[in-house]
C-alpha cells in the first residue's frame, strides 16, 4: 500500500492522465525524426518543427508542406493514442469514485493534450519562419481534433469503470450494455474480415507489391515504406469494409467497389497493392459474405438475452446505430486530401446507410432465428379450450372404508343394527353427483320368527347367599 497521503497519490494520477500519453508519443516521434535526420546527414534545424507537426498529425491534424496538404493521415497512431488515454483514465478512476474526482480525471485527460497542442502550434509557427515550405495549420481545427481524440479515449476509459453504476441510477434500459457489446462485435467482425481479405489480396498481387518496393534501392527506404504501409493498413481495411457493404472507396480518380473498378493513379505505397484490378473475380465478391457474417455476429450478441419483441427490436436498432456511427467516424478519420492525387476516402453518402442495413437486416434475422425474441402467448378462446373428459358416476371417487365394528352400517339413533330394514335405492339423477359406497341391505326377518318363546322362560336359580332374616314387625313368630 502506498504510504503517501491521498492528495499526493491523486495528484500523481492526474499528472499521469494529463501528460502520460502525449509525452510517450512525443518521445517516440522525436526518436524517429532524429534517426531520419541522422541517416540523411541533415542538420537539426527543422527537427523541432518536424516533431511538432508529426505530433499534431497523430491527432489527424492536416500538415501542409510546400503548398501540398497531407490530410490523409494514418489511423494506427491515432487509435494507439485513444487506447493510451482510455487506459490511463481507467486506472485513475475507481468504480466508487465521486463525481468530483471523476470530473477532475476527465478534465486532466483533456487539458494536458490541449496544452501540448498549443505548444506544438507555437513551435510549428516558429519553424515556419525558418522553413518556408512548412505552413502552420489552422489553430481551431487543430484544437478540435486533439480534443476529439482524447475525449473519445476519456469516455471509453471512464465509462468502463463507472458504466454499471451510471446505468443503475439512470432511467436507461438495462439492455444498453448488451447493445454496446453487440455493436463492438459487429464492428470487430467487419474490420477483421476486411483485414483478412486485404491480406489475401496482397498475396494475390504480390508482384505489384514487389514493383512498388522497387522505387527505392536502399534498405532504409524499403524499411520506411514497410513502416508507412503498417501505419496506413487500418485506412486500407476501412476502405475494404466500404467495398464489402456495397459502397465504394476512391483514391483520387481511381474508384473501387465490389462490382466495378475505375482506374487511376495511386500512390506508390506497397499496401495499396491490395486494391482490386479489373476484371473482378469472385474473390472480391466474397467481401459481401464478410459483411453478412458481421451482421450475424452482431445479431448473435444481441440475442444472448431474449426480450419481448419491442425490447429486442430496440436493442438491435441501437446496436446497429452504434456500429454504424463507429464505422462512419473511422471512415471520416481515414479520409482527406492527398496532395496532387486528390481526395482519398470512402463514399460517405452510401457507406453509412449500407452499414446500417447490413447490421439491422442480417442482425434482425439472426436475432429471430437464434431465439432472441420472447413472443407473448395468445390466450385461448372458448372454442379452442380442451373439453373436460367425461367420467362415469362414481369413477375416480375414493371408496369410503367402513369403520371397524360397524360392518359398513351407518349410525342410526332410531333403528337398532339387528332390526335395520332395507331401503330402496335412490332414483338416478340427470346430473352426475358423487356416489359413496352404501351398505348392503339386510333381508327383512320373518314376523313369525321374530321372537323365540324360550326367550321368555325364566329359570329361578338359587342365590349364592341366603337372604337375611327380616327384623322388626315383619319377623315371623315362633308359634308360626
UniProtKB/TrEMBL annotation:
Biased composition, class Basic and acidic residues, residue ranges: 379-391
Keywords, in A-Z order: Membrane, Transmembrane, Transmembrane helix
Bias (Acidic residues): 398-413
TM region positions: 14-39, 59-83, 104-123, 143-162, 183-207, 219-244, 251-275, 281-300, 312-335, 355-375
Region (Disordered): 378-480
InterPro entries in alphabetical order: DUF6350
Keyword RNA-binding: no
Biased segments, Low complexity type: 435-445
Protein name stated in the entry: Putative membrane protein
Species in which this protein is naturally found: Mycolicibacterium hassiacum (strain DSM 44199 / CIP 105218 / JCM 12690 / 3849) (Mycobacterium hassiacum)
